[in-house]
Amino acid sequence: MATIQYIEALGAAFLGYLVVAREARGAGVGSSLARRAFQEVLRAHRAVRRGRPLGAFGELEHLHGRSRFHRRRLRFWARLGMRPLQIAWRYPRLEPGTRPSAMYLAFKPMRPGQVPLTRERMSSIVRGIYAEIYPQPRARKVLRRVLLSIEKGPARIDFRDMPEEAR
Ligand SMILES: CC(C)(COP(=O)(O)OP(=O)(O)OC[C@H]1O[C@@H](n2cnc3c(N)ncnc32)[C@H](O)[C@@H]1OP(=O)(O)O)[C@@H](O)C(=O)NCCC(=O)NCCS
Questions:
Q1: How far is CA 20 from its chain centroid?
Q2: Is residue 5's pLDDT more than 70?
Q3: What is the pTM of this model?
Q4: Which residues contact 146 (CB under 8 A, 6 or more apart)?
Q5: Which domains does the chain carry?
Q6: Side-chain half-sphere CA neighbours of 61 within 13 A
Q7: What is the mean pLDDT of residues 123-132?
Q8: Residue located nearest, by CA, to atom 48 of ligand 1
Q9: Ligand 1 pocket test, candidate residues 25, 57, 82, 167, most atoms within 8 A of CB
Q10: Counting atoms of ligand 1 from 1, which one is nearest the CA of 29?
């Protein structure tokens, strides 16, 4: 299963879930599902706008202790052209009472020359993603924290440097 949502206001998409049944993993199903999801972004974009979509965004877990599991995961996404951006992304935990989780916001550009992104562009992308994906009122505080960190960060946002083994 893969879920991807085209966000018309951004001309970009957000990849929600990608899951393959345990017994079917490691045979290329996940990669082809992801590629198919990216094709859907092109199709959805062409239905409403000219030119190419900005790209696809998604959330990836941090390299906790740089575990082998997380490195494999980042490598999987890097092979598909999706890499973590240099912003302090936070995702509002969906269950009340739990803390927001720090994740990487990853990006697969689909238009040439889209990275680095300016601070202003990044802020409007983050607003667009939250408006569409996390509209619940308790997410607003988390959104403000993300925007603040972008304001205080570099003027241009590029991909993160990843450890060699995760590239
Ligand atoms: C990630 C996932 C969809 C990959 O599906 P798949 O059909 O095995 O993918 P492919 O066969 O195309 O690619 C296999 C690659 O995925 C890597 N991989 C294994 N487990 C993984 C995981 N949990 N997350 C990411 N990549 C993983 C493998 O290491 C392999 O790469 P390698 O050859 O460099 O070792 C599948 O492992 C899965 O459903 N995981 C649980 C859900 C998940 O973590 N989804 C992603 C976030 S929503």
A1: 19
A2: yes
A3: 0.92
A4: 87, 88, 89, 90, 126, 130
A5: 2-166 (3.40.630)
A6: 13
A7: 97
A8: 17
A9: 25
A10: 7
